[in-house]
Prior knowledge:
The complex is a heterodimer. Chain A is an all-alpha fold. Chain A contains 15 helices and no strands. Chain A has helices at about 1-30, 35-40, 55-60, 65-95, 100-110, 115-130, 135-140, 145-155, 160-170, 175-185, 185-205, 205-210, 220-235, 240-260, 260-270. The radius of gyration of chain A is 23 Å and the shape is globular. Chain B has helices spanning about 1-35, 55-60, 60-95, 100-110, 115-125, 135-140, 155-180, 185-195, 200-210, 215-230, 230-235, 250-255, 260-290, and strands spanning about 40, 50. In chain B, a hairpin with a 7-residue loop joins strand 1 and strand 2 (about 50). The longest helix of chain B has about 35 residues, at about 1-35. The radius of gyration of chain B is 24 Å and the shape is globular.
Amino acid sequence: MKPRHGLTLILLIILTVIFLFPFVYLIGGALKTNQEALTQPAAIFPSVPQWGNFAEAMKVIDIPRMTFNSLVMTFAVTFGQIIIAALAGYAFARLRFAGRDLVFVIFLATLIIPFELLFVPLYLMLAKLGWINTWWALIVPSLANPFAIFLFRQFFVTIPRELEESMYLDGAGYLRTFWSLMLPLAGPAVATVFILTWLAEWSGLLKPLVFTTSSEMWTLQVGLNFLNRGAQVSTPTIAYLMAGIVLASIPPIIMFLIFQRRFVASIAQTGLKG
Amino acid sequence: MRERLHAAGWGYAFISPALILVAVFLVLPIGFMLYISLHKWGLLGAPTFVGLDNFVYLANDDRFWRSIVNTIFYLVLAVPSQIGLGLFLAILVNKKVLAREGFRTIFFIPLAISFVAAGILFTWMFATTPIEGFFPRLLASVGLEFPRWQTTDAGWAMVMITLMNTWKSAGYCMIVYLAGLQGINKEWTEAAAIDGVRTQWQEFRFLTWPLLAPTTFLLVVTTVIFTVRGFEPIFVMTQGGPAGGTTTLVYYLFDKFPDTVGIASAAGTVLLVGVLALTLVQFLAQSRRATYY
Lengths: 274, 293
């Protein structure tokens, strides 16, 4: 067995080098001067690290403003989805009402509709409402997530009914039972929806690209795309672009490392990545 | 009776936010898209009913047919490569080697980077125009020429997109396969050894691979859908070029927006039918599988 594991380890090390190389090259590129990035792309590391690039990149595009926009959109959608989906999931799992199962099936069917085709009619609707280039357009259409509702329902179904019945005997209503018993119990489901939605919203380009028109409303992804197009055609700002990518990638990597176990567990369970 | 009505009242109250949002922002737009697909509609001015003209336009548009071929080409490249690499990684990190948790994190972490960031980074590493990036220079230093994927060679452009996508998504396949591998009973492996399964390859071929079939199937379904939906990788790396060679169906739709929303909606309708068909195939295959095993 020993030599086999030796081979495994060698293969793993080779693959690690391949997987980490883009990160290393990114950080190296972010620390070169723009001139050096352009003329010495074969060098992985800068001759003199330019730590000022991060501040300079912020002057080219308003990274603090875009980070703020990304954070507001991402957290608003994430928390909104959790509350709305948990409420609905609880009702689908526990409360009896006419048409419940039919509505649930319709919700499930909408799971397959990709945003990549939905954005065309949505854009026209939002334009009619006057929501284009507002927070409303970035947040409200994303609040309903049938997948999150499904996840919460499946989770609530597994919780023993006895716990709720003791709440009802104490005279608690459905809202209080939901709020002070069921939602706290649903910690794993909350964490799953949180990390999947958070990463998807943070990383998404199409929605903020199409639904915003002025740079004050841009998210980081739109800003990076803009900077990239500029870097290709006119000014040599490759190093700033790399610095911008580093800055934009720090929040999701932190989130990822905090929630790694939950993230891995949720992918293993559902086979979906949001 | 009053108790049940009470529960029903709260039930409706609890689902109403989700119900309104799903109705307004998911169901209504689909109906609206079907409506627009039957109209000639620029962003300005009133829509005029044109029947199936937009679909006739699609049927006669070479770029549309090419976008379908390109989507299939992208699927053929991207789906097997991420699933294959994911399986390989899963088998490696499933062994009791040194620091395997660390290796798992490393293969998994590209998932946290956005497609925009990864797309820009890979474009720059593989750039051939206007200047040569890291890998073209590396090849040049040993006397080889890097394919001109940004200017002439669309096939290679799709390969570059696939490389980026594989780097970003293999870790996801690895995690799903790891869950599948951990479901394989150790006793089966031992029984197989008694039955004459000797080499690691034989164990993989006759035991692991067949037992992982449900996992592979799940991964094929999800990665096919994610690949068909892939907009960012193409928008960031090639913008559908060179010469429309990487314009997939999703990118074609985006390209028709917002000047010809009618045509974009007709393309969206085709895409919706495609996604529905994929889901149906998945459903049928799963129910057959259930009776087979």
